[in-house]
Amino acid sequence: EVQLAESGGGLVQPGGSLRVSCTASGFRFSGDAMAWVRQAPGKGLEWVSSISGGGISTFYADSVKGRCTVSRDNSKNTLYLEMSNLRVEDTAVYYCAKGVARGQFDHWGQGTLVTVSS
Amino acid sequence: DIQMTQTPSTLSASVGDRVTIACRASRSISSWLAWYQQKPGKAPKLLIYQASSLESGVPSRFSGSGFATEFTLTISSLQPDDFATYYCHQYNSYPYSFGQGTKLEIK
Fold this sequence. Notes:
The complex is a heterodimer of chains A (118) and B (107).
Chain A: E1 3-7, E2 10-12, E3 18-25, E4 34-39, E5 45-51, E6 58-60, E7 68-73, E8 78-83, E9 92-100, E10 104-108, E11 112-116
Parallel strand pairs in A: 2-11
Antiparallel strand pairs in A: 1-3, 3-8, 4-5, 4-9, 5-6, 7-8, 9-10, 9-11
Chain B: E1 4-7, E2 10-13, E3 19-25, E4 33-38, E5 45-49, E6 53-54, E7 62-67, E8 70-75, E9 85-90, E10 97-98, E11 102-106
Parallel strand pairs in B: 2-11
Antiparallel strand pairs in B: 1-3, 3-8, 4-5, 4-9, 5-6, 7-8, 9-10, 9-11
C-alpha cells in the first residue's frame, strides 16, 4: 500500500525558513516523480514544485521560485521542500503527491500545515 | 503559463441527478488533464487521468471527456458520497496548474 506522510510544518515568522519532509513507502520511490501542492485556508489547490525520480530535474511555480528548493533522498525514501524568506501568503497545508507516468498525481499525503505569521 | 478555468464554481444538485463540470484551458493541453475529488479536511483523490481514463477503484458513474482546451467531468447519478469539491489539473507542461474548484452541494 502506497503511503505518504508529511512532517515539519509549524509556525514561522515572515522572512523565516522551514523545511517540510515527506516519507514514502509502498512503492519504488526512486522510480517516480514527486510533487508538492499547497492549499491556503479556504482556497483551492496550487502546484508548488515537482522533482524527477532521480532528482536531476526540478520545476517550480513562479510564486515560490528563488525561495524554495525541492530535493529528495532516494536512499531514505524522503522528499523535501526547503522554504526561505517565507511570506504570510505562503500559509497553507502542504501536500506531497506521487506522480505517475506523464504527470497526474495518484497518491497524496495527509498534508502538513505551514503558518507564516508574526 | 496555462490557466485553467472551471465552471460553475458552485453546483447544487440532488441524489440521483446527472451533473457536469466544465474545465477550460487557456491553450491546448492535448489530453493531459486530470480530475480530483476533495472532501473537507482530506487530501485530494484522483478520479480521472488523461482526460477520460478512470482511475482504478473509482466508481463507473464518474466519466471524463474532452481534448485540447475543453473538458468535462460527468457524474451520471449522484450519490451522497459525491458531495465534495472537484478540481481539474493540467499536466501538459510546467508550471502545472489547477482549476479554481467546483463545490458540489446538496440541493
